Each structure stands twice: as structure tokens, then as C-alpha cells.
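Anyone? Bumping this.
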Amino acid sequence: MIVLEKRPQASQLWSLATPVVAVLATMVFGGLLFALLGTQPVEAIRTIFWDPLFGEFAFYYRPQLLVKGAPLVLIAIGLSLGFKAGIWNIGAEGQYIIGALTGAGVGLAFYPLEAWYIFPLMVIAGALGGWAWAMIPGVLKVRFGTNEILVSLMLVYVAEQLLASMSLGLLKNPQGFGFPGSRNLNEYESANSWINQNAGLHWGVVAATIAVIFAYVLLNRHMLGFHIRLTGDAPRAARFAGVSPGRLVLFCLGTSGMLAGLAGLFEVAGPAGQVSIDFNTGYGFTAIIVAFLGRLHPIGILLAGLLMALTYIGGEIAQSQMGLPAAAIQVFQGMLLFFLLALDLLTNYRIRLKSREVA
Amino acid sequence: MDLSQINPILLVASLMVAATPILLAAIGELVVERAGVLNLGVEGMMITGAICGFAVAVETGSPWLGFLAAAIGGAALSFLFVILTQFALANQVASGLALTLFGLGLSSLLGQSYVGIKPPPTPDLHIPLLSDIPILGPVVFSHDLILYLGIAIVAGVWALLKFTRAGLIMRAVGENHDAAHALGYKVVRIRVMAILFGGACAGLGGAYISLVRVPQWTEGMTAGVGWIALALVVFASWKPWRVLLGAYLFGGITVLQLNLQAAGVAIPVEYLAMSPYVITIVVLVILSADKSRAPGSLGRIFHATS
């Protein structure tokens, strides 16, 4: 009979190995899925994981890695702080939309003025927008004890409706011939988040890098980071140590909302270019996978974000070259999270074979 | 604006139809939570049920086989949740999210070739006498079988929890799994059954959307109904009849805002469309003051040490 024995301490080795094993397992089972869909499995896996990096057109795809990875890392870093403390913000998608709306709104308000201060103001507005949207579940949780999971998620649907309303109304391009969507910010010099478009470099990449460093220092060198970890591991002990749960909730939700808002702003002012009805593409949800795949550790999240960006890009290539359906990549990403959560067992438990004892 | 266009009889009849998916998903989740498990994957199981039911109904031409397939599909997806949380002892919140993300992807993969097809109609019942009562007949007694099945499940769950030994054992497992284990009850086995039941109900609810309420298949068509169902369980303080009440309340809001959209009220469509979600939040705030009724072991991992 198989018996699970709790380890006195989480295994360091398995904690590092599970993401790798999970990725490998996902490749195997993903390959089976692709085979079922009638594509060559080995070919598909190679197209997804190898071609964007080392294939013939890698010079085009490599910059895309930064473009797609930056928002994922930025959002996931924020989410990981809360997840560590058992505070579940799963509405990052909504905060991402609101950040894009407020940031782009400020930028468009200045149109056609060209000035150096416009972009910094947009960044502040985007961060504040995401922060404020995340503070709704935060304040409700602290004040009324409302479940932050449900409230933050409900607000995603509200934000999506707001986005539709804004791109059809307030932020609509007055010279857009009646088409929905705002002015293109890429054609507006002062409100542009690109640094070097050919290298895939925009201010979101810079912000994501800073966020990784900031989170690393916070969690390893700062009292607040210690409190976050303590609350997640032993909530009762944390309360005896004088941690205020309410303030922690507000900090974690606020920070993750702010980072998600920033990600939205950098996206709308760069790769997306404009506010449109289908502006959001699910980064806020994929970032949840990124946060877990990176084991809620800043460096891990950086690597996981790049890997997930790779599956996005590779998925698009496989879609156009091999006719692999777009949804297959979504299934692939979901599968990854399953394997990760299941294999986590090995980190915290030892599996022993025992003969059944007679009671 | 012309509010006289809104027909109250049709409004109540369509309210019952709009409420049924939420009702089915919520009563399933209620059983799961009373057994002490928090499954946040309701949305994923619903959308999987929606496409399984739709595909089978289209292929076989029978809506009933479709509903059966939806229940099986929902339960099959929830079995992944069983493996993760009951055997691999994974965090229930994270596993539930994984289930939803996976379910959304899987459903759009399965549903590719079913976009724009009409499913076979689900026949409405005609109950002799009852259906012929003026006003009340067409409003309450002339729906399809699944709608009444939903109400029957609520009654069944209520009776199970209140009057039977099995219900008592399930509640014990949910309130304190360690004590229940010490008394010799099979905690994991009971929870597995509860989760599978919840999955089947969510699948049925999803299929009700794709086969009756809409009826067609579009990607992500459940649009947060699964999450509203989760909120509804909290709203109902984990009591079956209150789930019914809450589902009809939300069904009413949904139908009313659709009617207001059609009647051309001066409020923009987007703001009407966001109202069910905003009202869910408001209701959650009002009711979350009373947390005492939540099952004691809700969301905690059970690991038998001996």
C-alpha cells in the first residue's frame, strides 16, 4: 500500500525539479494531444519550443519573447506576493484592462500636444488605475470580510464591459471613420512605450526587470517580505508576531493591481497600440500559471514568464504552419499547471511503500 | 424607451430558464462545500459540460443524451480535481483555478467545428391540467424536464442533508475531517463522491446554457455563471432552498437587464450587461458579515497521519 509521509521540511531538490519535470510531462502529454488532433507531435513540440529561439526566422521571434514575456512577468510578480500570503487576487485581467484605460485616457487627453511629461503621467495613471481596481476587493475584504477571489473575478467582467463602453464611446477615435477603438498611440510620439521596436524593447520590459529585483529584495531582505511569507506558512504565528492581516491584504492586492495596471498601460501604449474591444488577451489569467510555474519566486517567475511567452509565440507559429488550433495551446498551458500542482506532492511528502498493518 | 413592451408573464417564465444553469451549478457546489471541499473550477466544469452536451446532442439528435454526456463530461473534469486535491494533496484554490483555465481551453478546442450550428430542440413538457391553468400554467408548468430536475435536485439535497444518515456523515466530514476520520468514516471516499456529484451538476448547468437557454455554441459562453454560482453558495449560507431563492433572484436580474436592453432604456448596454456582476459583489458584501455558517473544514487539506 502506498503511504504518504509528510517531510519535516520541504525538499529543496524537488522544489527545483518539479517545474522541470512538469514541463517535460506536459510536452509528452501535449504531444499525445497534438497527435490526437492529427498533427505530427514531435514536429509540433519542436515548432513550439525550438523554432522561435533557434529556427530560421528566430531573429524575428526572439524580440517577441520580450514583448509577450514582460506583461506576464510583471503581473505574475504582483500575484505571487499575494499567493505567498494566501491572498488570492485572480482578477489581474480586470486590473490590466483598467490600467490600460486610465493610462491611455491620460495620454489621449493631451493629444496632440507633444511633451516629455506625458508618458510619465500615463505610467502613473495606469498604475493608479490598476491599484484602485484591486483595492475594491481589498477594502471589501478588510472592512466586510468579503471573499477576495470572487470579488476580484467579478470585476474582470465589469472591466471588460467598461472596456467595450470606452472603446465605443469616450475613447473612440474621432477620426476613425466610426470604427470602434481609440487613436493609435504608436503614432503619437509622446505617448509611446517603445524604446526599440525591432529589439522588442519597451518600457514594460524595463518595469518587469525592476519588479523582479524589487520582489527579490522585498522577500529576502525586508521585514514586510518576511511577514508575507510568515502569513502564508503560519497565519496564527504571524498574528502573534504582530502582523496586521488587514494591512497585508491591502498591500498585496494593491501591489499586484498596480503591476497589472502597469502591464496594461505598457501594452496599450506599445504592442497593442490602441484601446479596442478585444484589447485584453488573457495575460492576467496566464500570469496565474506563470506565478505557480515560477514557484512564487521572483527569479523562477522570470524564467517561467519567458517559457510561457515561448509557448504563445510557438503556438502562433504552429497555428499558421501546421494548422494547430489556437485553443490547443491554451489546453497545453492548463495541462502544465495540472502537472505542476500534482508533482508538488513530492516536495512536501515522501512516498513510501508499506504493507498494510492490522489495527 | 417603452417599458410596456416588457411582458411580465414572459419575464417570469424566462427568469426560471435563466436561473436554471446557476441553480444546477450552485446546488452541486453546495454539496461539495458541505463535504469540506472548495472547488473553484465550477466555470471550467460548466463550459466543458456545455460543449460535451452540445456536441453529443448534435451528433445523436437527442438532447437527453446530450445532457447525459454533459453530466459525464463535468464529472470527468472534476475527477482531475479529485486527483489533485484528494490524492496529490494540492492546494484547493490553485487546483480549482487550474480546472477553470484547462476547461476553458479544452472546451474551445472541442467546440471548433460546432460554431454556428443549431442543436436539436429540447421539448417543453405539457402536463395535463397544470399546464392549462391560465397565467400560472405557461409560466410555471410548461418548461423542459431539466428545469424541474434542477428543482428536484435542490429538494433531494435538502432531504439528504436534513433527514438521512448519509447526509449527517457528509456534514461531519465537512465540519471536522479529523474527527470524522477518527470515527472511522472514509473522508476521502465521501469527498470524492461529493466532488463528482458537483461536477455532474455543473456539467448539466453548462449544457442547459448551450442547449436550452441560448441555444448554440460560442467560445466562453458561460461568461462567469460558474463564478456567480460560487458566490451564490456563500449567499445561501450553504442552505439548499436559499440557493433556489438566490438563483431566481440572479435569473431575474439577468432577464430584466436583457429586457431593458431590448426596450431601449437610456442606460448604455454595457452598463446593463455588467449589472449581474456588480449585484453579485453587493450581495456578497451584505452577506459576508455572517461567516459562521461555513463548513469548518472548508478548503483544508486532509492528510490521515495514521
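Late reply, but here is one note on the structure posted above: The mean pLDDT of chain A is 85.
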